[in-house]
Here is the input.
Amino acid sequence: MSDLSHVNGAGEASMVDVSAKTPGARMARAEGCIRMGAPALRAIRDNLLAKGDVLAVARIAGIQAAKRTADLIPLCHPLPLTDVQVRFVLDDALPGVRCEAEARTVAATGVEMEAITAVAVALVTIYDMAKSIDKGMQIDGVRLLEKSGGKSGTWRAGGAEPAP
Here is the structure.
């Protein structure tokens, strides 16, 4: 009935059965950014927020979110993550913070959702930590940059650049 992987023959949402797939090394990388006023960016850079080190807390939140993706996204498989990295770049040109996350596993399905979730939650955490200075912050451009492994092999978004 559908070419969508999470829709069964009756048109119902369904978890994909990956039991016949061979486990293999999988990697996914995602990005996004949060735009803010210069005073908020300065406060993050200079570690002046009362809640603490914004980027340290956001990094841990992103890693934790990747580990809990199956609890958040209904049809995701729980995965044994072997590595999650969350990186930030303070960008005066935005002004704001760019975030990139990379997730890895050895499993029968990919880690794209884990990388994307890590970025999204890390950026929302930055918002939470800095909202006292700038309630108008805007999260943009959360997307998959790259994935490798599995039947479909390697995929890269157009214009995707290597990690900072």
Observations:
- DSSP finds four helices and five strands in the chain.
- The beta strands are 24-35, 81-91, 96-107, 138-148, 155-156.
- The mean pLDDT is 91.
- The two ends are 42 Å apart (CA to CA).
